Amino acid sequence: MKIGVMRSNLAAPLHLGLGHSKSNQLGQDLPENYKALVSAAADAMRDWIGALRAARITNGPIFRRVLAGDRRGTPLGAEGVRFIVKARCAAAGLDGRFSAHSLRSGFVTEAGLRDMPIGEAMAMTGHRTVATFQGYYQSAAIRRSKVASMLDTPPPKDA
After folding, report:
1. pTM higher than 0.85, yes or no?
2. Sign of the four-CA dihedral 14, 15, 17, 21
3. CA–CA distance, 106 with 28 (Å, rounded to integer)
């Protein structure tokens, strides 16, 4: 994600352009590359971009190392993201194997638990098939799911 591939104005959502991805390895500029952020997510991204601009970084990768003195450094690569995810999971006291890919799995699981429309969630993740998308759903989270307690309440009378 690069600063130069952002589309934004105050009246509309913030659109982030994802360049290279698993499904776009050539980095073509396609409509599906742009992901909308609104509300708190957009506010947080705007704040981060403001911090980058204050550090005189006006183009290039958005996610960068934060160095001593609150300076922004080199782009954050896959290894850096993995380190952050593992460190934050450990700090939260979570057991298990976590990686940068855990973010995607967590997003899909949370979208399912919150009854988000599958098509909208797939548009955000870039999955092309429901089967692949559902493969990211963590079944351990089913304990919070309506499906797990379906027999606890009678069906609606008109069913």
Report:
1. no
2. positive
3. 27
